């Protein structure tokens, strides 16, 4: 192929690489630099609201394990700071948790008084945020029924009948761009 064609293919490949990067899972440190603590009363609601989480993103809890731990709990236990029946427990001080479903993921510290002091976080993944590569079991009720308790902005459905698993606009555009770049590359190569 000629130089022009090769260049176009290279551009298409680059664009695809960029798009792949956009679609890959993100890693977030809970509380950013503050970590997972009661010192300084970090605002974990504010922290969670400042992110847009997607399925398969990873949150890392970093803390002194002598003073804190991480419990995944139900919504009710999250509200009441009830640590008696956690769904899962982490306690290494450096815990990576994969958010593999849509809906809310509730975490709190099980040390006495810490949750009540604000060491709790509700990480919400909008139903429309499912990564295209993931085959998640969607939790329609979590996103459709209740209003988002975090500030996680639920993407407006483009059509009333749109399936809950519809890709968000941004990713649809990205997919369209990728598709047209691919056909461009194919045309150039033909
Ligand atoms: C915490 O939850 C357990 C079991 O779910 C329940 O028996 C208990 O009464 C709860 N405690 C409080 C303080 O709500
Ligand atoms: C936490 O664990 C990850 C690997 O899982 C490692 O890369 C990182 O350096 C650790 N951080 C601390 C503060 O220990
Ligand atoms: C999500 O991850 C948890 C813990 O890693 C695992 O037990 C569970 O089966 C996973 N769920 C899905 C739908 O992959
Ligand atoms: Cu704690």
From TrEMBL:
Keywords: Copper, Glycoprotein, Metal-binding, Signal. One of its GO terms (molecular function) is electron transfer activity. The keyword Secreted does not apply. InterPro entries: BlueCu_1_BS, Cupredoxin, Phytocyanin-like, Phytocyanin_dom. Gene3D superfamilies: Cupredoxins - blue copper proteins. One of its GO terms (cellular component) is plasma membrane. Residues 26-127 form the Phytocyanin domain. PANTHER family: BLUE COPPER PROTEIN (PTHR33021), OS07G0570600 PROTEIN (PTHR33021:SF339). This is Phytocyanin domain-containing protein.
């Amino acid at each position: 192929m000629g130089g022009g064609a090769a260049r176009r293919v290279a551009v298409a490949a680059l664009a695809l690489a960029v798009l792949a990067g956009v679609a890959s899972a993100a890693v977030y440190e809970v509380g950013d630099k503050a970590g997972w603590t009661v010192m300084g009363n970090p605002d974990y609601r504010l922290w969670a609201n400042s992110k847009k989480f997607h399925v398969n993103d990873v949150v890392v809890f970093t803390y002194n394990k002598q003073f804190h731990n991480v419990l995944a709990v139900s919504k009710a236990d999250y509200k009441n700071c009830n640590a008696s029946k956690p769904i899962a427990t982490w306690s290494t001080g450096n815990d990576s948790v994969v958010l593999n479903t849509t809906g809310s993921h509730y975490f709190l510290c099980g040390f006495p008084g810490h949750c009540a002091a604000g060491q709790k976080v509700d990480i919400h993944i909008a139903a429309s945020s499912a990564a295209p590569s993931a085959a998640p079991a969607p939790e329609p009720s979590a996103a459709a029924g209740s209003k988002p308790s975090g500030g996680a902005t639920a993407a407006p459905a483009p059509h009333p009948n749109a399936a809950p698993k519809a890709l968000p606009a941004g990713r649809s555009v990205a997919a369209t761009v990728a598709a047209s770049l691919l056909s461009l590359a194919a045309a150039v190569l033909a």
